[in-house]
Write a sequence for this structure.
């Protein structure tokens, strides 16, 4: 179609052939190529098949030379009558692999231009079709362009071999890593062990009755992550990752006050009065500087929808975590649907589904807070259950991890240890459910790991 219109589809067969020739004559350059290219980025189907074969052989430590390559192509069913002649030609036209990264960059750039053309055509077709509301079309368009920027595609069938290779790479990276868990640390070591940290694409729900401290634990987690240097393909970056906090209940200043109180371990009420000693003022100054240098970003707009949050997050470089406080306060607008004649339960269920989609779209963990209904207060054991999720609907289905907070002191101040707390993992797609003991510090509005307190 493009040729009929006199337009040339962006591609460079010479660069594709030079990449393949370099990989054959010097397999040592393959890691640098695999960092830049994927098989689907080749314009020529033949070149793409050869690249996939070479990638497979390298990833599984197979010897690579023209003979073994041709044999593997036969096994994979991509060998053709002229394959031997074509492989020899690739080697002849590539005298050295010294410039292989330059060739790979050309192939990648041309592939990006082709995907951009396809995305633009898709958006135009959707607009001309006139199906759906403008906000919904805009959201879909932004999602597609954002996926291009991150080097991914939205939807579409893909061979399982790609997923298997991704998992194999992740396992190898975890084996080589010094980190105890695959995901981001919450700062609560016992909880990390239970849920394996906060992992990309996961929706983590933290639920409790009002006043139990769910905002506090979310802030503890957000600050822990926002101060940690970035990890890029096994390497660390001095800069911290960005953490987006959407607070629909509290203002930025209220959240900052809590963060400072937790950081310097000074009573929140005392901080607000300003009646501090010179040493305490000095500690507060140091805490303010440390918090300001973190990667924490806060939006306290109480009328935000998931679509608006998603749009903001797409524009944040080095985003590693999103925190939403809290689910039941969110607006359903921006989803392309109206809930004026529907129950709030259906609205909240749809919002939870959009949050899970946002986590996958952004490829970061999303921590969302939620209220529990009063159902647990009618039981003798008031520990939360999944069925206690307020306006639950599909919330428990969408979440990968559900954590319920419980403190005996919340219900009985005369109990033996009113500051003892439990993080009860009610659902865990990455492992087992169970209870994690924590310590609640009400004067500092903060949760701490029991093990950490013992170490201190």
């Amino acid at each position: 179609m493009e040729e009929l219109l006199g337009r040339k589809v962006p591609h460079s067969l010479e660069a594709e052939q030079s990449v393949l020739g370099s990989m054959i004559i010097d397999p040592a350059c393959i890691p640098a190529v695999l960092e830049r290219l994927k098989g689907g980025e080749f314009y020529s189907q033949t070149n793409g098949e050869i690249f996939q074969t070479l990638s497979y052989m390298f990833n599984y430590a197979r010897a690579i030379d023209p003979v073994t390559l041709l044999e593997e192509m036969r096994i994979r069913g991509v060998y053709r009558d002229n394959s031997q002649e074509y492989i020899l030609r690739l080697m002849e036209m590539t005298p050295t692999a010294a410039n292989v990264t330059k060739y790979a960059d050309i192939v990648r750039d041309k592939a990006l231009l082709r995907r951009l053309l396809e995305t633009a055509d898709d958006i135009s077709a959707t607009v001309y079709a006139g199906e759906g509301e403008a906000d919904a079309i805009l959201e879909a368009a932004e999602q597609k362009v954002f996926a291009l920027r991150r080097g991914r595609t939205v939807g579409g069938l893909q061979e399982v071999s790609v997923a298997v290779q991704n998992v194999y790479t992740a396992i190898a990276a975890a084996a080589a890593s010094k980190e105890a868990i695959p995901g981001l640390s919450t700062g609560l070591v016992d909880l990390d062990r239970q849920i394996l940290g906060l992992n990309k694409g996961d929706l983590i729900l933290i639920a409790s009755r009002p006043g139990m401290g769910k905002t506090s634990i979310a802030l503890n987690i957000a600050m822990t992550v926002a101060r940690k240097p970035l990890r890029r393909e096994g390497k660390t970056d001095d800069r911290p990752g960005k953490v987006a906090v959407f607070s629909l209940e509290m203002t930025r200043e209220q959240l900052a006050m809590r963060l400072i109180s937790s950081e310097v371990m000074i009573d929140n009420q005392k901080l607000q009065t300003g009646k501090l000693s010179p040493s305490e003022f000095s500690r507060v100054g140091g805490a303010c500087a440390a918090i300001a240098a973190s990667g924490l970003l806060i939006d306290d707009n109480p009328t935000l929808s998931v679509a608006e949050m998603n749009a903001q997050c797409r524009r944040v470089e080095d985003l590693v975590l999103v925190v939403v406080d809290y689910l039941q306060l969110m607006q359903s607008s921006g989803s392309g649907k109206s809930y004026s004649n529907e129950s709030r339960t259906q609205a909240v269920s749809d919002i939870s589904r959009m949050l899970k989609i946002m986590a996958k779209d952004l490829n970061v963990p999303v921590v969302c807070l939620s209220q529990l209904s009063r159902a647990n207060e009618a039981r003798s054991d008031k520990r939360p259950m999944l069925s206690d999720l307020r306006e639950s609907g599909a919330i428990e289905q969408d979440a990968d991890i559900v954590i319920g907070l419980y403190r005996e002191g919340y219900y009985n101040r005369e109990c033996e240890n009113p500051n003892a707390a439990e993080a009860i993992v009610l659902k865990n797609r990455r492992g087992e459910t169970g209870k994690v003991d924590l310590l609640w510090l009400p004067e500092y509005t903060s949760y701490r790991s029991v093990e950490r307190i013992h170490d201190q």
